[in-house]
Ubiquitin-protein ligase E3C (Photinus pyralis), 966 residues
Amino acid sequence: MANMPFKLSYSFEGNYRTRPEQNLSGDGRKETRDRLLMRAHEERQKRQEQRLKLSSTVVIQAFMRSYLVRQRVKHEERLKYDQLESNSDFKHLLGKFLFFYNPHIDGQRLVRICDKLLQKRTEILKVLDFDESLCWLVRRLLSLCLDGLKNEHLVKTSMECIRVFTADATSRAKVEVWPYLVTKGYFSRLRELLDKDYAGDIMELIERPFRSTISLSLMQVNLLLSEFCSQFLCPKVSSQVKTILIPYMQKSTVFPYNDLIKFLNTNKNYDATNSLLYCILALEPVLYGPSQDSIQVLATLTLNLNQLSVLENSEADDSDDEAMEVSTEQVHLQDYIYLFNHSERVKRLILYIDEHNDNEELLMSVIQLCQNLLLVYKDAIRKYMLLFMLALNGNFLNKIWDLITKDEVTIKQMNSTAFSVWKDIHKALLVFCDMFTFYTETLTDSESSDTSMTFKNSNLSSMADILKNIALSMIDLAFPMCRSSAVLPSRELLHFYSSCLNCVKTLFTLDLRKNFCKAGFWTRQKIHVSQDLPKKNYLSKTIRPFYGVVSEDEDEHLPPLSTIEQRSLAILQQLPFLIEFNVRILLLRELCRYSIGDNMRLHRDFLSDSVITIRRRYLYEDAFEKLSYQNEIDLRHRIRIQFINNAGLEEAGIDGGGIFKEFLSEVLKTSFDPTRGFFLLTNDNMLYPNPNVAVLVDNFTDHYYFIGRLVGKAIFENTLVDLPLAEFFLVKLLIDRASAYYLKSLDPILYRNLLYLREYSGDVQDLGLDFTTVNNDLGETKVIELKPNGTNISVTSDNRLEYIHRLANFKLNTQIKKQCNAFREGLDNVVPLLWLRLFNHLELQVIIGGDTQEMDIDDLKAHTSYGGEFTPEHSTMILFWKIVEKFTDTQKKQLLKFVTSCSRPPLLGFKELNPPFCIQSSGSENRMPTASTCLNLLKLPVIKEEQLLKTKLLAAIEQQAGFELS
């Protein structure tokens, strides 16, 4: 037994198996305090719900009993009314009717009682002003008539009833009925009838409430205007509102337009829609004089006008892909432009602003209005006459600038990147920048310099300083260091960015003419330019503010730029003049070098090159044939030239680059020769495209394209060519449209005449001008209209600015548009215009033709190498430099051209000449000096007599025989 694996347990009661104990006394757990409170709360809530149900039941039962009683009483009254309808007193009858009226079942009763009212009109109208209770009953009946206007069976009677009992504008009862009816939906019902083209004349009814405004309180008048706006002016303009209501109300003598303007300016509870703006402009009375209120209203209502521009542009984009649909919009942007450009309105606004320009509050309203209009179109100043006239108003611009510079603290804060702290000053800056930029495009620098009269040089200097700093701050803001400081760009912010940068460009261009900034002002702040920008050709990519570099080629994956690199790229593309000229020149050369790629560079340097045979007698013709549009080759490759002399023999010499430079120089000299007809000379002997070249050559655009490519090749090869181009033509190589100022470089006499016309104080019409100009095509005189029907449009004091702009634009842009476009295309084919826009037009002339300053002989001497028996201490060399130092500027240029084939020194000094300038001994003194231009090598005989050396040197450089002299 001791080895049993288990054992049995026995209880003392003799049971050998245990049973679970059972407690029959219930849950022995004690209830906690929280549980007790929760159960009490639940029971209380249940009792509350029971009481609520009971009270709700009582209320519902009471309401139902009340409703049933009312229905029963109304039914009884309706029966009594039907029995008394023909005999009872009208006032008593009307009271009963108003008590039980139900529009669903009492429509015919309404018609009958209205007929009774109309039958007794004379009697009722006499006592209406004296019987308050009757007046109240009639007023309530008219409100029921408003509901009757919804029903086509009741509309005629209801309309007649309203017309009769609201006719007398002098009656107290009729006057006081308007606020009541308007609150009951008077204008709402009439708007519905108007949109349904109701045959009856409802215009007089719409106008009628305003006949009583003189007798109403200001609050009541505002009530009328508020409802009128909400029903007719604020909603989407329908064709009926546009063609019927607005013309009617605009001619109305009782419509309180001035009260409407004051209401809109003092109450901000209305919906400031573009429809309301259109209606306010269209409703303006003919002789209405503007006020601060009206200008403030326009400033408020134009806030959302740019959204209409976005909407119409998106619809225009959609229409390209889908079938054209007829727009349901009744008002388009052209309608707003038409209304804003109403000549009398613009005149009155300009006059009012001029008279009150010391009012800062008014000035801020005008600024807000101008900003809103500027945001609508990219070229808004030319579309809105108000902006156009204000932009040409120097006094107005001065006032804005005074307002901007008044708050010095804000100006300093604007150098930070927190756009939110700029307050409203950025609005004034946006308007000023746009308008000042436009202002300087007009005739400004002259004997009667308008800019000098408006802004002194000290003002322009401080303006340049402030706006340059703000522009750099905007670039920092547009390309933040981290995402957390990024700003979500609004339309206003993007416009401000472009406006500010354009204005800084304008100030820089103005400084080139007027020199109001100190030397080194623009490049004072050192800006780092990464070497990766030219290597990866980032400069040709679009960089959008607040977004970064945008790659047009989806397959091209460029490494991302750092913030510093993005900022420097933005500066290079937008404000390149903030970077030193020498840095930009080196950048251009790097861009040219990296543009041809490694494989192409190998082909260019070591493999076969194109060899072109050119006859000297037919230099231009052969060059045009070999390098023309039809036989276009990549001019970025090296091209070798084999000249055929006048005897028909190949000239001696192997083209190592020097012969091509000579070829390029001679072809360009021939191309720009005025006797060939492609270019003409201005009065100061500067070259520009011939406006009448089409008379001489049919395919003239191919020739300008060819010449442009040659100029591009010269720039690409860093070869200077002597081409004195007219200032306006240089400007047009960089931008599409030259401003009126550059007419000075084309025709200074016409320029002065236009200035005289602008400042003429008498009646301009007496000068007998019209919108035409005379053009002389090789002796044939043609009259050209500057605008449609220009022959019949006289130039007056009001449109003389337009005449000046149109005439200047015709002379500078329209006449030579095809020539310049072809030339630019050819130039762009070799050196992208985007790269050339790193420079201003004066710098471009330096890049093409070199610096016009006198040659630095000490610099040439310091960077000259020697060959043969020559050394710097050799007696011949001592004599040579002594002679050269005494040369005239012309002789120095002849010497340089003799040795290097170019009369201008390298842009960055003679250290850049490759190969270096070298002088080599060439034997006894009976020989003549010769040169190898491809090596920049001067071969000089050993001569120890100064006069003999000078004579031979002058004879050689003046003959310019090049390779064939020896």
